[in-house]
Design brief:
Layout: H1 7-23, H2 29-45, H3 55-63, H4 70-89, H5 116-130, H6 137-152, H7 156-160, E1 173-177, E2 183-187, H8 190-200, E3 212-213, E4 216-217, H9 220-233, H10 243-256, H11 261-268, H12 273-277, H13 284-294, H14 296-310
Antiparallel strand pairs: 1-2, 3-4
Length: about 300
């Protein structure tokens, strides 16, 4: 490799790296797009010399990230480290300068969620809609969408792109291909299957999608819009409701009800248990109650109190 490669060589190597990420690592499209953006910006800053960057170059580059959030710096660093590791593995570099990149402890905020009263208000508003005779097909679609979001914890993209026959009404689960092409089993409640049955009767038999729209399926943007409208109708500030918030509510309420963390990880499709563990911080009151009720010292305190009352 030449010491001063043209910018086109950076672009070619970035393309090769991203092809590997998609084919071998099974990276999601959104991840590929984010990596492409981060690598292109880094290459531009280094005038097309990213592929031969020195630790000193990377120190200057990371200095430009000082005003960014920890999570953004962590993402950019991760993209560049994987890129340099790829170059080293392919024999395109003799060294790996990735160690010069920062490793900020990215803080993870608590997920926004809804309490059970909010969920009840959403479903009450849907019930009023579908009680009309005859019900509007759009309301039947809305019912199926919300039942699957809150009842199964689907991601927005997974939900809108479901094939028409993805859900078998006699089967209480769905096999879903999620991020990175991995498959997972998603539970389906009787309510969700009933709502899907009512909606699917409205879907043209020739449709490839469960939620068709034009020549494709319902868009994520349209899903956001109908949820915001439902929230306003239910008396909930629309900015508090989104597909991701309903997914968080699914996880939070399951954990509060005693769900096993590993089972929840599988249902949500998290590759790392650390991603799921964030929900253990959401329902602190339940954990405090558990300690007070089950900890051996709590039992000893109760025995002492009982003896004092009997004295």
């Amino acid at each position: 490799m030449s010491a001063t490669p043209p910018a086109s060589e950076d672009r070619a190597l970035i393309d090769r790296f991203l092809e590997m990420m998609a084919a071998e690592a099974g990276a999601a499209k959104n991840t590929i797009a984010a990596y492409r953006s981060d690598l292109a910006l880094a290459s531009g800053f280094l005038h097309g010399r990213l592929s031969v960057a020195t630790p000193e170059d990377l120190a200057r580059l990371s200095g430009e990230w000082m005003d960014l959030s920890k999570s953004s710096v962590a993402r950019k660093s991760a993209a560049l480290r994987r890129f340099f590791a790829f170059l080293a593995d392919e024999g395109l570099r003799e060294d790996d300068p990735g160690a010069a990149l920062p490793r900020p402890g990215a803080s993870r905020g608590l997920p926004k969620s809804l309490d059970l009263a909010d969920i009840d208000r959403l479903f009450d508003a849907i019930s009023v809609r579908i009680a009309r005779d005859p019900p509007d097909p759009n309301d039947l679609r809305l019912s199926a969408l919300v039942e699957l979001l809150y009842g199964s914890g689907l991601r927005a993209t997974e939900l809108v792109s479901l094939p028409r026959r993805a859900i078998a009404l006699e089967r209480p689960y769905l096999i879903l291909r999620g991020k990175g092409g991995t498959e997972r089993l998603v539970p389906l409640s009787e309510r969700a299957r009933a709502a899907v049955a009512l909606w699917r009767a409205q879907v043209p038999p020739e449709s490839a999608w469960l939620f068709p729209s034009g020549k494709s399926h319902l868009s994520r943007i349209r899903l956001y819009q109908v949820l915001k409208a439902l929230a306003a109708e239910a008396g909930i500030p629309p900015e508090r409701v989104s597909p991701h918030v309903l997914r968080h509510a699914f996880a939070t309420h399951l954990l509060a009800g005693g769900a096993d963390l590993r089972a929840l990880q599988a249902m949500l499709g998290h590759a790392d248990i650390a991603t799921t563990e964030i929900y253990t911080h959401v329902d602190a009151s339940r954990l405090v109650e558990l300690v007070n009720a089950r900890h051996p010292l709590a039992e000893a305190t109760a025995r002492v109190d009982a003896r004092k009352r009997g004295a």
